[in-house]
Amino acid sequence: MALIGVGLMGGSLGLAVKRAKLVGEIVGYSPEPAALKRAVQRGAIDRFTKSAPEAVREADLVVLATPAGSFEPLVKECASSFKLGAILTDVGSVKGALVGRIDALLPPHVVYLPAHPLAGRERSGIDASSATLFDGCRCLITPGHRNNQIGRPDALKRLTGLWEKIGATVTTLDPFEHDRYLALVSHLPHLVAYALVNCAMDAAKEAPGLLGFSAGGFRDFTRIAASSPEMWRDICLENRAEILSALARYQSVLERYRRLIEAGDGASLEAAFRDARRVKEELRSA
């Protein structure tokens, strides 16, 4: 297995796969030499290379675990180095049109099966990785329309099996459905968290002690604002249409709340809050 990127997701996948003894060797590549050395120390990879093409050359499975904006340049760079029947996958949070663009860059003997494990932490980097990160999580596999099976007709079965053996439950989903759904339940929450922190920072310029009064609610709600800025920059730009739609929907709800508060309509506010609490309780027990 070749791991292109050894941060939280890549490092955790390496640790989980090695824990389950699913591959013979894991080769890593990253533009950050210090991260590669630390990944070897932590046991997430066995060795590393100086280039991405060198890392993928003998790999049966290649995993892109870098920010989504780097996927296309990496695939272009490695296109002539993939072995016959190689499976290319990723752990990115955005799919949609990106899947088709990557498919178009690949030689016919490579199968591309994008994946998105719904797991993560607010911290990033190899030192945040864990062999148990994917235990009990849901992993979405989003094959493109080409879904080339030349040389590897068992590709989907093999990739599904890998994720199941490291603790995930796999669902297959259309790439565009993925982006529509995740815009609301993942991408929008991160944007809101970043926005709330920036809002408080702006207010703190006039009231310097403001952030010292933040308690559990603010800290819990904004926990994910500690996520990788580079990763979320790429997600926002790649999935901009669906995220803009989700933002418009969210803004309309906030506007409704604003009008209820302005009107002093406590009964309607309480009803809205009760509806939200009911859904949250259902999610907690699911």
Question: What's the short version?
Answer:
Helix content is 51%, strand content 10%.
Terminal Cα separation, in Å? Answer: 34 Å
CATH class of the largest domain: Alpha Beta
- Read across the widest sheet, the strand sequence of neighbours is 3-2-1-4-5-6
Radius of gyration: 21 Å
CATH-defined fold name of the largest domain? Rossmann fold
| Proportion of beta-strand residues | 5-15%
| Overall morphology | globular
How many separate structural domains? 2
What is the percent of helical residues?
40-55%
Mean pLDDT, rounded to whole units? 93
Give an overview of the whole structure.
The chain folds into 2 domains: 2-173, 3-Layer(aba) Sandwich (Rossmann fold); 177-285, 6-phosphogluconate dehydrogenase C-terminal fold. A 6-stranded parallel sheet has the order 3-2-1-4-5-6. Helix 4 packs parallel to helix 5 (97-105). Helix 4 links the parallel strand 4 and strand 5 (87-90). It has helices at residues 8-19, 33-42, 52-56, 71-78, 97-105, 155-165, 175-204, 216-221, 229-238, 240-263, 266-285, and strands spanning 2-4, 27-29, 47-48, 61-64, 87-90, 111-112, 115-117, 138-141, 169-172. It is globular and about 65 Å long. It is an alpha/beta fold and 286 residues long.
